[in-house]
């Protein structure tokens, strides 16, 4: 009899768990594993966070990832950190309408961990008090929003889900800057996967703008500025295009200088500012870019984006030996874009032979998202064709790329080359 009632209890606990809202019930396993396999060397996602809510979600996601990979030892420590972040959120006035939902995601995650380590008493106590059904619109918005933040931390592997859930979050609650930001950031990711210079949708523009306008948060600010610059990547023939572009750049640099004057300490902000100053390519701005990068060096000297931008700074100031050195360092950190730049610049300066490097890249990034695999194969095809006049191999690699996804928008981009 006892066994039967134990089993019955077990089933009812499992049923209750399945109704909760947290990474364990968001069907993330497949994407998490892929993300883990490709992003081992890159920085932790903590550095991306713009507020305690984002930090909390990243922390709960790490808890999920640790339980999934049977690394229960670290979970207790992560849960303790998460609890501190939750307390910080509970004390902030701006979260008072959504805090119940945020608490739900925290306790739901904790329940799955307790189930894993068989702490049944504490588990039953929390399950007895947790409400998985009755939420206001603002709270529902927060549940979708929390989910979008967690998906967003999987970068390319989570961007589609992050967009879907952030749209729902914004629908339910227009007033949270973070949901607007997560939506815009992942729309940007989706577009840049196709081509770094692809057109910006009105939706992306609107949500970056709203996020910054509501919050005046510096992280949202630098993304907003970046979006404004990217709006003018595509040349068009309208008469006032050049004037509009110049006026836009001037305004962007002005706001960027204001943000820089307030001495930001978040290195992600400093990196984005450096990139804007580098793009202006004027001596004053180059000096500011160098100051930004010097500040980053003190905080995150091994960050792959930092190494990549140092390479660009040296390249722009004509110091090609240093530029090559930094491109190489960035490439060694699994920075895909930097590695392509390293091969391109290395070839232009006669420092390296592109083909062997590109062939090694295919191996190195074989778990990458399909768009990146297509980029590598197309680069190999073009290299065989242009540098080696080897049409047979060029055709073979072009076919390999086509086989991965014949409908990929990458082919539209390449044909124009």
Give the key terms.
417 residues, 5 domains, TPR-like_helical_dom_sf, mainly alpha, Serine Threonine Protein Phosphatase 5, Tetratricopeptide repeat, 0% strand, globular, ARM_TT21_2nd
Care to give the gist of this entry?
Residues 259-398 form the Tetratricopeptide repeat protein 21A/21B second ARM domain. Helix content is 73%, strand content 0%.
Structural summary, described in words:
The chain has 417 residues and is mostly helical. It folds into five domains: 1-173, Tetratricopeptide repeat domain (Serine Threonine Protein Phosphatase 5, Tetratricopeptide repeat), CATH 1.25.40; 175-215; 232-299, no CATH class; 302-309 and 317-349, no CATH class; 353-416, Alpha Horseshoe (Serine Threonine Protein Phosphatase 5, Tetratricopeptide repeat). Helix content is 73%, strand content 0%. It is built from 21 helices and no strands. It has helices at 2-18, 29-38, 52-68, 72-90, 99-116, 120-129, 137-152, 159-172, 177-194, 202-215, 218-230, 241-261, 267-280, 283-299, 304-316, 320-332, 336-348, 354-364, 370-387, 391-404, 410-415. It is globular, with a radius of gyration of 24 Å. InterPro entries: ARM_TT21_2nd, TPR-like_helical_dom_sf, TPR_rpt. Residues 259-398 form the Tetratricopeptide repeat protein 21A/21B second ARM domain. It comes from Ooceraea biroi (Clonal raider ant). This is Tetratricopeptide repeat protein 21A/21B second ARM domain-containing protein.
């Amino acid at each position: 009899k006892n066994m039967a009632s134990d089993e019955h209890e077990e089933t009812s606990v499992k049923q209750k768990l399945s109704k909760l809202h947290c990474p364990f019930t968001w069907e993330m396993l497949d994407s998490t594993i892929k993300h883990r396999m490709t992003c081992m060397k890159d920085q932790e996602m903590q550095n991306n966070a713009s507020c305690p809510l984002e930090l909390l979600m990243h922390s709960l996601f790490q808890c999920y990832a640790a339980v999934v990979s049977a690394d229960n030892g670290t979970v207790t420590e992560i849960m303790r950190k998460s609890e501190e972040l939750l307390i910080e959120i509970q004390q902030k006035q701006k979260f008072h309408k959504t805090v119940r939902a945020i608490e739900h995601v925290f306790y739901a995650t904790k329940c799955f961990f307790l189930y894993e380590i068989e702490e049944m008493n504490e588990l039953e106590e929390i399950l007895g008090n947790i409400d998985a059904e009755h939420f206001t619109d603002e709270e529902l918005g927060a549940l979708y929003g929390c989910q979008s933040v967690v998906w967003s931390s999987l970068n390319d592997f989570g961007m589609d889900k992050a967009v879907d859930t952030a749209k729902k979050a914004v629908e339910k609650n227009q007033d949270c800057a973070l949901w607007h930001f997560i939506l815009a950031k992942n729309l940007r990711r989706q577009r840049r996967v196709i081509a770094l210079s692809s057109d910006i949708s009105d939706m992306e523009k609107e949500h970056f703008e709203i996020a910054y306008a509501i919050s005046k948060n510096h992280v949202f600010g630098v993304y907003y500025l970046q979006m404004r610059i990217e709006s003018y990547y595509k040349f068009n023939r309208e008469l006032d295009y050049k004037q509009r572009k110049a006026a836009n750049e001037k305004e962007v640099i002005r706001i960027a200088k204001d943000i820089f004057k307030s001495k930001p300490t978040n290195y992600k902000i400093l990196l984005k500012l450096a990139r804007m100053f580098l793009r202006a390519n004027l001596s004053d701005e180059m000096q500011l870019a160098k100051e930004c990068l010097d500040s980053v060096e003190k905080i995150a000297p091994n960050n792959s984006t930092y190494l990549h931008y140092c390479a660009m700074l040296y390249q722009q100031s004509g110091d090609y030996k240093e530029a090559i050195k930094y491109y190489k360092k960035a490439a060694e950190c699994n920075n895909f874009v930097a590695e392509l730049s390293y091969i391109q610049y290395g070839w232009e300066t006669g420092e390296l032979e592109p083909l062997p490097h590109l062939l090694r890249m295919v191996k190195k990034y074989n778990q990458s998202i399909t768009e990146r695999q297509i980029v590598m194969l197309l680069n190999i095809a073009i290299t065989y064709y242009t540098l080696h006049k080897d049409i047979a191999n060029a055709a073979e690699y072009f076919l390999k790329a086509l086989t991965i996804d014949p409908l990929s928008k990458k082919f539209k981009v390449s044909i124009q080359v």
